[in-house]
Amino acid sequence: MKQITGGICAAEGFTANGIHCGIRKNRSKRDLSLIFSQNRAACAAVYTQNLVKGAPISVTKAHIADGFAQAVIVNSGNANTCNFNGVEIAESMGALAAEKLNISAKDVVVASTGVIGLPMSLDPIRGGIDSLVSGLSREGSANAAEGIMTTDTRKKEIAVEFAIGSKTCRMGGIAKGSGMIHPNMATMLVFITTDVSITPEMLQKALSTDVKSSFNMLSIDGDTSTNDMVVVMANGKAGNETIKTGGEDFSAFCKALNTVTVALCKMIAADGEGATKLLECEVSGASDVETARTVAKSVICSSLLKAAMFGADANWGRVLCAIGYSGAKVDINRIDLRFRSAKGDILVCKDGHGVDFSEERAKEILLENEIEILVNLNAGDCTSKAWGCDLTYDYVKINGDYRT
Amino acid sequence: MKQITGGICAAEGFTANGIHCGIRKNRSKRDLSLIFSQNRAACAAVYTQNLVKGAPISVTKAHIADGFAQAVIVNSGNANTCNFNGVEIAESMGALAAEKLNISAKDVVVASTGVIGLPMSLDPIRGGIDSLVSGLSREGSANAAEGIMTTDTRKKEIAVEFAIGSKTCRMGGIAKGSGMIHPNMATMLVFITTDVSITPEMLQKALSTDVKSSFNMLSIDGDTSTNDMVVVMANGKAGNETIKTGGEDFSAFCKALNTVTVALCKMIAADGEGATKLLECEVSGASDVETARTVAKSVICSSLLKAAMFGADANWGRVLCAIGYSGAKVDINRIDLRFRSAKGDILVCKDGHGVDFSEERAKEILLENEIEILVNLNAGDCTSKAWGCDLTYDYVKINGDYRT
Questions:
Q1: How far is residue B22 CA from its own chain's centroid?
Q2: What percent of chain A has pLDDT over 70?
Q3: How confident is the model at residue A117 (pLDDT cuts 50, 70, 90)?
Q4: What pLDDT does residue A100 have?
Q5: pLDDT beyond 80 at B319
Q6: pLDDT of the residue at B187
Q7: What are phi and psi of B129, to 5 degrees?
Q8: Fold of domain B2-270
Q9: What is the pLDDT of residues B3-18, one digit of tens each?
Q10: pLDDT tier at B229 (50, 70, 90 boundaries)?
């Protein structure tokens, strides 16, 4: 497997675009994106488990109930959530795109992200749909990635090339993250395209399994959004024998999918609201994978640890504390803990108790912008990783005044 | 019931003191406190549910297993947690106090708060114990309250007077809070004294019931501490007929206890690390009390809502979002939401959807330093309250560099 360029347009048969249509006042920020497949593609999705759901989610669920889709339309700047006419607006967004693309409205995935509870007008989308569609191109991934950003500071794109049987396949993804990121079965907005031929059932199975070790192990701030959505479209253009069951081909597909999703997770975590550091907690030596996940997620979610990482402070007691309240059944007295970065690694806790270590050396390691927190439970051979970011002044600044 | 002065020394037969003994380098900050009852008192406690537990917790549990205690010794500056010789140190602290007080070491409650995993020396305590004991007085509550503070900016004391039968009774409490506050069956350190006569069993029942609606509904930062402890001592000096069962007297006692615990909760929340505002979420119209509690706690814990409150931003979508991911079974389309403060109140959401409201008026209300978030689920008549604070730059500052 190798990384390639092109994002969501790397796979054969996909084009994309992103424009400013006026949902946002800032004219320099794209706010409407479109992804299009030449043919109907197998489509799978996972959604937020929040009881409060954005209107686009129910519309998308209905549209892809048959396992297929051909386009994705998505806006930023307004979540279209908790609005009385939300479903009507979401349906109309999809219908506008379908009409211009000359496809069925039922084959359009609709998504929105932005402020909750703000009435949403269809006018900017109606005004922009012509240029959105006419601008679709194989080079459009970056513009589409920008169109879904809210407080994100960087576009999040990835693409890989891999083999299934004798065929070369491609898969790419874009994502938006930043705040209200604590996915439960899904994350904010992630769109993945691939030219692999796979049935909708196997595609959904691959995605539903994957999110357990990817997006569900990601947290910026503990707030599970109302609009989380991960969508994968597979249009079969690579010409491989259609994947209909488990086996070698399905494993190769799942591996590629996990490469794309984990890469997007790290990009989302590193660009969390106000973040200066990407944190990765790797738990090893767990008796079962569920324990490993619970521990890793709890560590990555601790506000106190996140603030300590911002200050490059090796306050390891906060890691132990977070493991202790995680709910996982672990033997605290067997835990070893290290911090690691590009500058090396340092042991700070052995058998659940502090060890002598150089604060200067720890500081040097923690001043890097990618930090690994390595927890060994010494109780088995299961592992898990979780991703998050530090808690900074800028998180408070961004969220103290988001709407103005 | 009326509020009186005197804190933990308001009840007959209790004295207290707090000194600087040298656990902390800052000589102007008291770091060792003592509470003493003239006679053995019925004693009940609740503790953290964190698997990582401070050494003093196991020592205290063993000491009060018989339902009685006569003194509390507590230090700040070191949590005595994750240290190899922690239990030995905690036992020695208790023994030093017992020897000077001429009581049994088994009648001493031991507690610690501060940095986790820092080796703790007994020397400062050994050096300070004489002046700690000789300074015990009826006026010592404030010094004891100061001695348990860590990043707290204000002492937390309360006392009330109430009647049981024909007898006037008193109850007082001190607390330390600030950070790592998300109690699970207990809170950081709270010590409550009363001269009521009550059996240890009924005292424990009153406390265990009370924390469900008091300290367990409090969160500063979502981090459940390793050292949480709430201890109540009842020495019987008020001369009431000993409370041995439920009934009118027990109800009067529980009411006084709840007045003290809720007052301390609010003080802890208002003085959360970096806090500028006390937040109270009141959930009404719930089908059952568990639902009300789950919703209230989820709202108060949302980092996004906390940051919005810091910015006096009426971003009510974040409240709905937090209700949606709380795990409580609620009908989102029946929720009404108001913000209230000393400046009045404003409806921002009706039946789960936004209503027109004046942003200027909302700002005026939210600029106050005590904010109520009023959620009506319109599904029953159960209620609950939870307390927290806003998320500010100073929380990050304090916790980015706590140990240096």
A1: 26
A2: 96
A3: confident
A4: 97
A5: yes
A6: 43
A7: -65, -35
A8: L-amino peptidase D-ALA esterase/amidase (3.60.70)
A9: 999 999 999 999 999 9
A10: confident
Compute the count of residue pairs across chains A and B with CB atoms less than 8 Å apart: 202
- Give the whole-angstrom CA distance, residue B131 versus residue B21: 9
Q: What b/e string do you get for B81-99 counting C-beta neighbours within 10 Å, with b at 16 or more?
A: bbbeebbebbbbbbbbbbe
Residue spans per domain, chain A: 2-270, 278-400
For residue B311, the chain A residues in CB contact (below 8 A) are 399-402
d(CA B343, CA A100): 52
Instruction: Determine the residue type at B122.
Output: L
Give the pLDDT band of residue A403 (cuts 50, 70, 90).
low
- Does the structure show a pLDDT above 80 at B376? yes
Count of alpha carbons within 13 angstroms of residue A233, beta-carbon side: 31
- Nearest-CB residue to B184 (from A221, A325, A395): A325
Q: Which residues of A are catalytic?
A: 187
Distance, in Å, from the CA atom of A264 to the CA atom of A280, rounded to the nearest integer, reads 13
Q: Do A317 and B395 touch (CB under 8 A)?
A: no
The span from the CA of A398 to the CA of B308, in Å, is 9
- Yes or no: say if B358 and B321 are a contact pair by the CB < 8 Å rule: no
Q: What is the pLDDT of residue B215?
A: 87
- Class of the domain covering B278-400: alpha beta
Per-residue pLDDT, B183: 56
Helices A86-101 and A123-134: crossing angle in degrees, nearest 10, is 30
Can you name the residues that pair with A350 across neighbouring β-strands? Answer: A353
Choose the closest CB to A332 out of B52, B303, B396.
B52
Q: 3-state DSSP call for residue A279?
A: strand
ipTM rounded to 2 decimals: 0.76
Question: Is there a contact between B330 and A51 if contact means CB atoms under 8 Å apart?
Answer: yes
Residue B329 burial (10 A CB sphere; 0-12, 13-18, 19+): exposed
Write out pLDDT tens, residues B140-155. Answer: 999 999 999 887 888 8
Distances in Å between the Cα of A148 and the Cα atoms of A17, A77, A153, A346 are 11, 9, 12, 39
In this prediction, residue A187 carries a pLDDT of 43
Point out the residue among A82, A119, A354 whose CB comes nearest to the CB of B320: A82
Catalytic residues of B: 187
CB contact under 8 A, A180 and B304: yes
Residue A132 pLDDT exceeds 60: yes
CA distances from B292 to A91, B266, B337 (A): 35, 19, 14
What is the mean predicted confidence (pLDDT) over A149-157?
Answer: 85
Average pLDDT over residues B182-200: 77
Determine the Cα–Cα distance for residues A309 and A305; give it in Å rounded to an integer: 6
Which residues are within 8 A (CB) of B68 and not within 5 positions of it... i.e. 6 or more apart?
Answer: B40, B41, B42, B43, B107, B200
